[in-house]
Amino acid sequence: MKPLPPGSVIGILGGGQLGRMLASAAARLGFDVHIFAPEDSPPAARVAAMHWQAAYDDESALREFADACDVITYEFENIPVQSVDFLVSIGAVVRPGAASLEKSQDRLAEKQFLNAIGIETGAFAEVSSVSDLEQALKTLGRAGILKTRRDGYDGKGQVRLKSGDDLAAAYADIDEVPAILEAYVPFEREISVVIARGADGSMAAFDPSMNDHAGGILRTSIAPCGLSDDIIARARTMAEALARETGHIGVLALELFVLEDGTLLANEFAPRVHNSGHWTPEACLTGQFEQHIRAVAGWPLGPVTRVFDAEMHNLLGEEALAPADSYDKDAVLTLYGKRDAKPGRKMGHVVARTGRA
Ligand SMILES: Nc1ncnc2c1ncn2[C@@H]1O[C@H](COP(=O)(O)OP(=O)(O)O)[C@@H](O)[C@H]1O
Ligand SMILES: [Mg+2]
């Protein structure tokens, strides 16, 4: 596919805040954006040229959407792989392709894939019954995190366990769905690498950020991450291998645990722009949203040079109703336009530029 000229239509599967910020970045480059999402008036649809409101498996709606779009991308990883396969089968260009999506939807397949391409993870075991769980907890060192294989986000679908806990109750807590048990990783800090791979195979990684979570939800990302050049180089190499091996076109994010001795263990990856990259538009020459649009449009990637040190804070639930109280006045505010400020829901974020890079 030739680079798309301005005025072309970029379709996005998914209507959340990531789609909203992608749509804004695309508009700035002269593209029109069509959002395909089942919800009524989701955040992304309210900044886009058009909203196709239909179920992700509605093939006649997908067909019309494909006819209207020059390229199609996605903004969240729980789009059915079959929908992407269908779009490709009728001749649509979908970037990134189904491979990245498929690998990231299932925590078991994801970890096996990461290990197979030489990216180390913590120890894990498949859990399909209480007796699997019992056995896994013994093997993995008596403390672990039980996670549903599919559909988890923001720490949802996870139960922390140690030996002596009621395992039947824990498995019932996640509705006895297919799961994995992960050994608890005693990390020194968490970082992520947000990387873009262009249609020509070129790659550009942002400086890794250090990420702080509370209750499984990202609260803060800080760049630079404060680690040695050697660790940063290894983190980038891992993200590059992942982008290359999935044949990814667009942005992806690799979440890593950093151990005391500098060992890096992959936690998970997202085949899309990522919350831990929300500082990039304010701190780098090209932000993650513009970069993703450049990649899927077949444009050259932009320079990812970091101009500022930065701190990104998420605004959760009611924090976003009075944002002026939650950040200092020099910070840059982004609100997602969500109508219901449920506790813990990501409603917006602020980015403080804390110094010159
Ligand atoms: N095996 C683990 N050991 C230690 N902490 C973990 C482990 N798995 C997850 N966590 C903590 O929980 C957070 C959320 O878990 P994650 O697997 O990334 O799920 P989600 O898909 O909800 O982001 C991680 O960023 C980390 O802080
Ligand atoms: Mg995560």
TrEMBL record:
InterPro entries, A to Z: ATP-grasp, ATP-grasp_carboxylate-amine, ATP_grasp_subdomain_1, PreATP-grasp_dom_sf, PurK, PurK_C, PurT/PurK_preATP-grasp, Rudment_hybrid_motif
Catalysis performed (reactions): 5-amino-1-(5-phospho-beta-D-ribosyl)imidazole + hydrogencarbonate + ATP = 5-carboxyamino-1-(5-phospho-D-ribosyl)imidazole + ADP + phosphate + 2 H(+)
E.C. no: 6.3.4.18
Positions contributing to ATP binding: 107, 147, 152-158, 182-185, 190, 213, 267-268
A UniProt-annotated Pfam family: ATP-grasp
Start and end residues of each ATP-grasp domain: 111-297
Pathway assignment: Purine metabolism; IMP biosynthesis via de novo pathway; 5-amino-1-(5-phospho-D-ribosyl)imidazole-4-carboxylate from 5-amino-1-(5-phospho-D-ribosyl)imidazole (N5-CAIR route): step 1/2
Keyword terms of this UniProt record: ATP-binding, Ligase, Nucleotide-binding, Purine biosynthesis
Alphabetical list of PANTHER family matching this protein: PHOSPHORIBOSYLAMINOIMIDAZOLE CARBOXYLASE (PTHR11609:SF5), PURINE BIOSYNTHESIS PROTEIN 6/7, PUR6/7 (PTHR11609)
SUBUNIT field: Homodimer.
Family: Belongs to the PurK/PurT family.
Known role: Catalyzes the ATP-dependent conversion of 5-aminoimidazole ribonucleotide (AIR) and HCO(3)- to N5-carboxyaminoimidazole ribonucleotide (N5-CAIR). Catalyzes the ATP-dependent conversion of 5-aminoimidazole ribonucleotide (AIR) and HCO(3)(-) to N5-carboxyaminoimidazole ribonucleotide (N5-CAIR).
Protein name: N5-carboxyaminoimidazole ribonucleotide synthase
Species assigned in the record: Henriciella pelagia
Gene: purK
